[in-house]
Amino acid sequence: MNALTTALRVLRWAVEGTGRPPAGPLRHTSLLIDPGTEARTALAELIRQFAARHGAGRPPLGDPEPAGAGGVLLAAAIGGRMEPESACAVAEALPPRSLSERDGGWSDALARHAVVDPFLNGLSRSEGKPAAQGAVGMGRAEAEANELRIAEVLLDASPLTAVLYSPAAGRLSRGATAAVRTAALLVARPAGRRLLCSGLAAWHGHAPVLDWRSQLLTRLSTDHPEVVLDTYLAARLRYGQEWDQRVSAARRRLAARSLPDELTLATVRFWAPLADLARRHPGLPATRPLLVGHQPAVELVHRYRLNRPATS
User: Fold this and answer.
1) Is the pLDDT assigned to residue 132 strictly greater than 60?
2) Cα separation of 110 and 105, whole Å?
């Protein structure tokens, strides 16, 4: 076992992305520089399946260029998370992924996101549960802290994940202008608008993720109001039943005498950009006749004055 075989195991896991990702050693990291046919084939298959599942088109986001080795390096970092110093060094060895409206790089950016996204969502689902057993000599709490540390490095290395999940904490505190710019560029890419809207539309069990999405939609609402509307349309058409359940639960918690938890507030705040857009442009939601069922959430936004996105 070495860094390349560790990356391969994670790439194959990421196709389904269920359970905890495999872990392995990071020996011989030089093998990751030119990972070879097997790793590139596994990465291409992951991109193909991820793009098909999330509507990113073919070629992905209109970029015919093959993905670089970025996804392989990030897979190695995830698999090597029990060696946190080495794992962070592997991820940080990647140059920043620069994206523009017309140039390439989007296929590689999607590859990075396809690797990082299931790992981060798995961390979010495991919050509040016992942390995974770490390597020899590493306690569960330490293993969890290392995973969270590596998550921040991964977010810095994956620009699409910074948009669709959340920017790294440091960038978020500085305004996350790069992520907002990437989102605006994504809108102009083939299938990019569909990926963005569907990626932001689902309820998420991690309050900071929902709060970031409400911040991003608020910032997009001035120049791209149609993207905001289509995101909420996707939320109702694709995830309406779950949103109904979550909003109903939030209503009960907000009506209780105790202070609501952050996830309850974030669940309602997610709908604040739509409430604000409808206030500023009353006729705009009617341009999406299938956008229905959102009124209970919007009413909670107004009733509890949650019409300002949370800030970090």
Assistant:
1) no
2) 9
311 pLDDT higher than 60: no
DSSP designation for 256? S
CA 215 from centre of chain = 14
* Dihedral over Cα of 126, 154, 189, 180: its sign: positive
Whole-angstrom distance between the N-terminal and C-terminal Cα of the chain? 41
Question: CA nearest 31: which of 65, 64, 75?
Answer: 75
Residues 165, 155 contacting (CB under 8 angstroms): yes
Q: What's the CA gap between 127 and 57, in Å, rounded?
A: 33
Both tokens assigned to 51: 């793009």
CA distance 99 to 109: 8
Nearest in space to 218 (alpha carbons), one of 274, 177, 262: 274
Instruction: Locate 194 and state its tokens.
Output: 């569909």
| Alpha-carbon span 234 to 232, nearest angstrom | 5
Q: Please name the residue ranges forming H helices in the chain.
A: 3-16, 36-54, 70-79, 84-92, 106-126, 140-157, 159-164, 169-173, 177-187, 192-201, 207-220, 225-255, 262-269, 272-280, 295-303
Mean pLDDT across 253-282: 96
Residue with structure tokens 């991964």?
154
Q: pLDDT band for position 131 (50/70/90)?
A: very low
d(CA 174, CA 161): 17
Only one residue has tokens 């896991």, namely 13
Flag whether pLDDT at 128 surpasses 50.
no
Distance CA 211, CA 243 (A): 15
The C-alpha atoms of residue 253 and residue 154 are separated, in whole angstroms, by 34
In this prediction the pTM is 0.92
Give the integer Cα–Cα distance in Å for 167 and 158: 9
